[in-house]
């Protein structure tokens, strides 16, 4: 059994379920109290996380509470609950992780493979750093855990990192990753090349790296955004299922989802590696970088050892990790082509410039936003 802490069994699934249920509580004036009480019981030792959730609850409910003229004692009860949460978690708020401990958030992708290999082969332990890997199946859930400081670092796309930085989250990207995204067209879509995309329905998650990569491909083909129909589908598994069922014509997918899609007779149209483009990296909170630079340096030494191993051994040496950690079905694992992984290095300036230009065109960041401030350059050995 791999030592990664997965979200199938630990606390995150329970908390995610609670968060999702908060949105259904508006019909029940006691719902907020009971759900927050559940969170207090469940994660009694994490004040930052509870504070984050409490603010989210306030956004969802205060307007309605005032609109419905709910009695004062309900509002007072909510504030008393906040005091209770603070009292319950004061001890944990003052508790610091070991300097040699890092909590890293990942999603199922090839970007994550070097970390899984380093963990499996004891490279992190050899370098004296204790890494706990938390696996997520939704970017929103991963970002919530990162923003609430449950994670020290995460694998994150440049677009998302820049938007978080512009929104006040103090983070830095410390290296680029080597995973990719592939535009896959449905087998009955009639799309055989990029030039066939005009007039087609393309599924995206708006204002994300998927949207960015899709726009870049369209731009390369000289197809305007008005010439295609974008369909917003945030969940990757749902996009894959709709592609399989012919509900959309094409979508951008990372591996292992791209490989899964190709098994159904769908077509690979373009891989962003053909554009010599990297769009993801590893990010850490600024204060983690300031407090634990040596730990992050050790993290990258172990990462580089995993890269050497990945590039020197045949792909079948990693089939068990690809199945258990990346989520590739056993019957398809032999068809996976591994990226040519690079030793840890900083993001390329040209990639960042493309992201910055796109974000500003979309008005997702201010006109004076400087994406170079996202980079921390002193942590790679």
Characterise the protein shown here.
This protein has 381 residues and is an alpha/beta fold. It folds into 3 domains: 5-93; 101-177 and 280-374, Periplasmic binding protein-like II (D-Maltodextrin-Binding Protein, domain 2, 3-Layer(aba) Sandwich); 181-275, Periplasmic binding protein-like II (D-Maltodextrin-Binding Protein, domain 2). It is 45% helix and 15% strand. It contains 15 helices and 11 strands. It has helices spanning 11-22, 31-42, 47-67, 72-93, 113-120, 123-126, 139-147, 158-166, 209-221, 236-244, 257-262, 286-291, 293-312, 319-326, 349-361, and strands spanning 5-6, 101-107, 130-136, 153-157, 171-176, 181-185, 201-204, 229-232, 250-254, 267-271, 280-285. Strands 1-3-2-4-11-5 form a 6-stranded mixed sheet, with helices on both faces. A 5-stranded mixed sheet has the order 8-7-9-6-10, sandwiched between helices. Strand 7, helix 9 (209-221) and strand 8 form a beta-alpha-beta unit. Helix 2 (31-42) runs parallel beside helix 4, helix 3 packs antiparallel against helix 4 and helix 5 packs across helix 13 (293-312). It is globular, with a radius of gyration of 22 Å. The model is unreliable at 1-17, 23-49, 62-69 and 86-96 (pLDDT under 50).
